[in-house]
From TrEMBL:
Catalytic activity line of the entry: 5-phospho-beta-D-ribosylamine + glycine + ATP = N(1)-(5-phospho-beta-D-ribosyl)glycinamide + ADP + phosphate + H(+)
Family indicated by similarity: Belongs to the GARS family.
Annotated Gene3D superfamilies: 3.40.50.20, ATP-grasp fold, A domain, ATP-grasp fold, B domain, Phosphoribosylglycinamide synthetase, C-terminal domain
SUPFAM superfamilies recorded: Glutathione synthetase ATP-binding domain-like, PreATP-grasp domain, Rudiment single hybrid motif
Name of this chain's protein: Phosphoribosylamine--glycine ligase
UniProt EC number: 6.3.4.13
Keywords tagged on the record: ATP-binding, Ligase, Nucleotide-binding, Purine biosynthesis
The UniProt record lists the keyword Transmembrane helix: no
Organism: Roseiconus lacunae
Protein encoded by which gene: purD
């Protein structure tokens, strides 16, 4: 069987690596891929959003399964285009991808399905949104515990957590006034700020059967102690002890199952990865957002622990036969992914800087270095993005996995490279 993975990040490197381990897979292509995927798959110079070219390639090369990594091509309708061409593809349709493509759609669906989430209001412009904040919080110095979200895709950066009225008004202006995130800010959401710890629960579904994956915990803020601006994710670990068996069952019954049913009722049946971003509040789990693909960096530690044949699972889901797949087999040991980033991220950063020490890092026991923002330049690996590498490790305990990961991190160098130093500390120390 021949497989095509669409995308160029750490998630796609992890998918290509794991899919390539299947005895049923003879060849893995990645479009466009990165310097890491080039070492264990065949990179194809087609952009992830160039849907016609991808369909043409898959048809010509008789690809048996295409796995779409990033959200942008899913929202563009890549799955619809592949299915219309008679090609087998894993991922949600354009209509179903609206669950991530529009936060307004997502919040309204959650409300309709009676799925617990934060109270919210939606706005189509900065004037009405600003007026709402000024009316609700008339005192300039009073706390304003809200989160402002751009409606559309913003590479994980269109969510701004606010503490004061000034911060809220600035966030509204950035999103809906200055259009910092482009058309993603045509609508925006103002919602109450939830208090608790975040967790991610991903599930694979064919629209009927749901197979939930172990809970993970992402680290969105840029700096240690969850300080600084939101990013696409600075690291993750799996499983997270804050989601025990009872909580996991509650998330399945109160969140995942109702959403799959609600999407079916809305005539937007969901097939693919359903990713619930959750806040575990004192009142129970509440949904922060839904994504419609494997999370990056959650995908890396998840696949590090997966023992089952990923190809068999995704192929069955694409065929609508997920019920034929039994329980997945997992390594009992926990895993952790530490993201190494370019200096300046999540703002502007310099590209083309040579990365050294990758081979030495890969030699550390129980470590796999997944490439994200890298490319090959004159035979050398250089940085080509903000989040550059996902150094992923497994160990007999979270502490051991962390030690393995950071041992490998210390062997990797490029000018300005940095990472958070506290990935997984919440699991080790609690809170």
């Amino acid at each position: 069987m021949k497989v095509l993975v669409v995308g160029s990040g750490g998630r796609e490197h992890a998918l290509a690596w794991k899919l390539g381990q299947s005895p049923k897979v003879t060849q893995v292509f990645v479009a466009p891929g990165n310097a890491g995927t080039a070492t264990e798959a065949t990179n194809i110079e087609i952009d992830a959003s160039d849907v016609p070219a991808l369909v043409q390639f898959a048809t010509k090369n008789q690809i048996d399964l295409t796995v779409v990594g990033p959200e942008a091509p899913l929202v563009l309708g890549i799955v619809d285009a592949f299915e219309e061409a008679g090609l087998r593809v894993f991922g949600p349709s354009r209509a179903a991808a609206e669950l991530e493509g529009s936060k307004v759609f997502c919040k309204n669906l959650l409300h309709t399905a009676d799925v617990p989430t934060a109270d919210y209001r939606t706005f189509r412009g900065s004037d009405d949104a600003s007026r709402y904040i000024k009316d609700k919080y008339p005192e300039p110095n009073e706390p304003v515990p809200v989160v402002i979200k751009a409606d559309g895709l913003a590479a994980g950066k269109g969510v701004i957590v606010c503490e004061t009225r000034r911060e809220a008004l600035e966030a509204i202006d950035r999103i809906a006034g200055q259009k910092e995130f482009g058309d993603a800010g045509n609508e925006l959401i103002i919602e109450e700020r939830l208090i608790g710890q975040e967790a991610s629960v991903l599930a694979i579904t064919d629209g009927e059967t749901i197979i939930s994956l172990p809970a993970a915990q992402d680290h969105k803020p840029a700096f240690d102690g969850d300080q600084g601006p939101n990013t696409g994710g600075m690291g993750a670990y799996c499983p997270t002890p804050i989601v025990d068996e009872a909580m996991f069952e509650r998330i399945e019954s109160d969140v995942l199952v109702p959403v799959v049913h609600a999407m079916k009722r809305a005539r937007k049946p969901f097939k693919g990865v359903l990713y619930a971003g959750l806040m575990l509040t004192s009142a129970g789990p509440k949904v922060l957002e839904f994504n419609v693909r494997f999370g990056d960096p959650e995908c890396q530690p998840l696949l590090m622990r997966l023992k089952s044949d990923l190809f068999e699972v995704l192929y069955a889901a694409a065929e609508g036969k997920l019920a034929d797949i039994g329980s997945l087999e997992w390594d009992d040991r926990p895993s952790i992914c530490v993201v190494m980033a370019s200096e300046g991220y999540p703002g502007s950063y310099e590209k083309g800087l040579e990365i050294t020490g990758l081979a030495e890092a890969d030699e550390v026991d129980d470590v796999k270095v997944f490439h994200a923002g890298t490319t090959l330049q004159d035979g050398k690996v250089v940085n080509a993005g903000g989040r550059v590498l996902g150094v992923t490790a497994i160990g007999n305990s979270i502490s051991t996995a962390k030690l393995n990961a950071y041992t490998a991190v210390r062997k990797i160098r490029w000018q300005g490279a940095w990472c958070r130093k506290d990935i997984s500390d919440k699991a080790i120390h609690g809170g």
